Amino acid sequence: xxxxxxxxxxxxxxxxxxxxxxxxxxxxxxxxxxxxxxxxxxxxxxxxxxxxxxxxxxxxxxxxxxxxxxxxxxxxxxxxxxxxxxxxxxxxxxxxxxxxxxxxxxxxxxxxxxxxxxxxxxxxxxxxxxxxxxxxxxxxxxxxxxxxxxxxxxxxxxxxxxxxxxxxxxxxxxxxxxxxxxxxxxxxxxxxxxxxxxxxxxxxxxxxxxxxxxxxxxxxxxxxxxxxxxxxxxxxxxxxxxxxxxxxxxxxxxxxxxxxxxxxxxxxxxxxxxxxxxxxxxxxxxxxxxxxxxxxxxxxxxxxxxxxxxxxxxxxxxxxxxxxxxxxxxxxxxxxxxxxxxxxxxxxxxxxxxxxxxxxxxxxxxxxxxxxxxxxxxxxxxxxxxxxxxxxxxxxxxxxxxxxxxxxxxxxxxxxxxxxxxxxxxxxxxxxxxxxxxxxxxxxxxxxxxxxxxxxxxxxxxxxxxxxxxxxxxxxxxxxxxxxxxxxxxxxxxxxxxxxxxxxxxxxxxxxxxxxxxxxxxxxxxxxxxxxxxxxxxxxxxxxxxxxxxxxxxx
Amino acid sequence: xxxxxxxxxxxxxxxxxxxxxxxxxxxxxxxxxxxxxxxxxxxxxxxxxxxxxxxxxxxxxxxxxxxxxxxxxxxxxxxxxxxxxxxxxxxxxxxxxxxxxxxxxxxxxxxxxxxxxxxxxxxxxxxxxxxxxxxxxxxxxxxxxxxxxxxxxxxxxxxxxxxxxxxxxxxxxxxxxxxxxxxxxxxxxxxxxxxxxxxxxxxxxxxxxxxxxxxxxxxxxxxxxxxxxxxxxxxxxxxxxxxxxxxxxxxxxxxxxxxxxxxxxxxxxxxxxxxxxxxxxxxxxxxxxxxxxxxxxxxxxxxxxxxxxxxxxxxxxxxxxxxxxxxxxxxxxxxxxxxxxxxxxxxxxxxxxxxxxxxxxxxxxxxxxxxxxxxxxxxxxxxxxxxxxxxxxxxxxxxxxxxxxxxxxxxxxxxxxxxxxxxxxxxxxxxxxxxxxxxxxxxxxxxxxxxxxxxxxxxxxxxxxxxxxxxxxxxxxxxxxxxxxxxxxxxxxxxxxxxxxxxxxxxxxxxxxxxxxxxxxxxxxxxxxxxxxxxxxxxxxxxxxxxxxxxxxxx
Lengths: 555, 555
Prior knowledge:
Radius of gyration of chain A: 28 Å
Oligomer: homodimer
Number of domains of chain A: 3
Largest interface: A-B, 77 and 77 residues
């Protein structure tokens, strides 16, 4: 499908720039009457098929020449996959207003401060309404694995959209702040033309276990542990940290926070009164290191097996303060993000080898998901009764499952917009229709550079990573075309056998001799000849496919 | 710890060559009175830290000069991680006898036939006893995710060892062949000096769900599916396939087997009466392709996301016979082996995108594990009451958890041999002690070659895979040392920016000029200079760490 037609008058356009087809880099653009509203601007973390990539950004190109039209970026909550790309967007235009709850704005401001950007931000409250240019936005409390998450209803003369952000419906959340289902019901009664809802757990039947049910499990662990306790979790999961602190307090242990993001985020959460730290519970890591093992809990980052994180360093035995050993208990109170298994189990094994008891979600109920499974999604669909539905935030398997749920609740199948990043959906009279497609590439961040790494380059990396390369160099006389040096063959990542290339040198020489007899002197042709010759030899001899790098130099 | 002392007279030595510290390449060597017995000889599948590796073998070197002393290789069951390295061992000495159950021997013989090896094999029956040279072996039925699995008790004058192989204790297995707990009890009453037991699920509390409980789930799926049904599973999981066939039969569908190993193994299973195929249930894939969607079930390989498998090809839309689309149901009735998540979810997403409903173990109970969890392991420990205990078949987290279970049942902590591959354990008077260590490397198979890929080479691959390489070539006069060609810079996997290296060329030239002024003409020194110069530039400019390949050619 090609580029979309100009937007008809009185219609609302929705362009998901990320979050549909992969979990991450969530970003949706709304257009009405020439003006744009953005909801979320997150990053996607690369998987093993994207080697060497640090982050993946949404492709901003469809709006890059229209940033003056952007009324605001609404941030539903403070997770990286919703706010992580904000710095990259604001690089283009630093004064786009950011709108979100208190905690969300505090997190994004802290992130921007590292890059010396001070954003224009607007803090909104649960139930509040803001007119953001052409868009009237109403904000609803939702429960998620980070405090202060929000859904947003966007009203325009062309219709009303409800975008849930990420959410679940724990009915007994730690902070008592439940997902505003009543508000959604009221909105549904007014009429919702398009519902965009979190699909992450749409495949999973049933309902979420309450965060509170983790507490007795933690208490059990804390009651029986005799040595040090180290708990790792996401650095933004304030309620999980709260429970660890409460359990530590109850069992007479102090808590030391480890890891830069853990310290920073819990400081913010405490300042905003989202985290309640009993009296003298917190100690510094230096003090903790000198305390007796049974007196201390370390609350750490590194739950995803990151080698440079606090826990990763402990597992490798090179943490500055903490050496894990016999008698220690490590709790990974976190999800295991698909793709991180090798890293996470590697950390668990290294800690186990050192003598620690490691408790993780396969072993005990020390984690609950932050996303609504099918049972809760049905509640939402039935409360809102939208005209049209667009599943968002998920891989294809999640979007497809969510679409089926919507149809089951009565959304007409042809009013379910099962779309992917870059599809352009126009909402006219409550009906969502795909009208075109805009460019949508994965924008890779690798080190300091953004966008110079693309798919073909990743494919080179995959070939190099799987088989290494063999470089064959020949020097020819630029006038006569005769070989005056080489062939020399060298390789990296191919074989540790020092004599591996002895047999191929005469083969290359013979091929060059034949070429010379045939009067071939063109360096490019000779290069192709060397590539073919070495490629055929290595395939026959080894059944491997390293990259062949022929190099014909003229002197 | 160094090499072990000579084995004392009357002692039994155990050397695990694989399976302790990683799940796979299971292999244990027993030595008594100068003679050796091997239990299992499997492969380990590489993870993402071992790029380009096809298989990992046990390190045979400690027994390679003693193969004449090997009385037999006992194979506990037919999974690749227990039999996959047999061809590589028999390469060294093809007439080592193989001992195992009927199905196990049939599978290993089929594997060896592909390499034109006809082994000396001995089929043993449940409850049978064989004198294998110095070792009296008694075989016990165990229940696992493949038929005909066995545990083996090894009796020598130095004591009795019970090696469970892989097992679980489904009390209602499809074939009625339960784990011979009564036999283990009898053996325990006689006295077991060392128990070696499967640790894979030692972290998991409780008991296994019966294989039979999958059937109603399959029936539900088969009852409601309107289009084609494609079920993927391990090609050796005869009972899972049996249930799919039974459900297909009940719902009036025919079954076509797809995938070379699926067809081969089910043929063997049928011949051995381990698989009961109702009347005219089976159809060829060609016939199936012309049948109506609601009449057919495809039973396929590819449950681990292998791109070249039948299911992998269907997902990519390039299977010769089958195009998956709207209305089709795909069931992944299998585990998800850690490390395969990206591949498996990739397949699920591609099938979902094509319109299929994909049911996998996160969504419905279509898989149960083949390994005993903690509850069952306790039963075994309490029945056998061994003097000493060695947890086997597991990563460190599993071995550690299993060791704790053993201690809880009364095995003295100092008689638990928590060891890893290559540790040498002597059993004297019922007490197992580590007495030394033998070489134990991962032996990597990559294409046709075995052993020319090692850790340092994998580290080169990882660097290349993450960041590509930058090659900088300079040609110098071999007499004067003067630069006569270059510098030229080329790269793979580094940047798609065609002008990326424009800024570094003058930097290299300047460095070479300074070297020339200083009288440096040694090619090796110039090479180091180029490497440093380019490396510093790329780090400052990009914050990346590609491999730098300097190349100073003399003509």
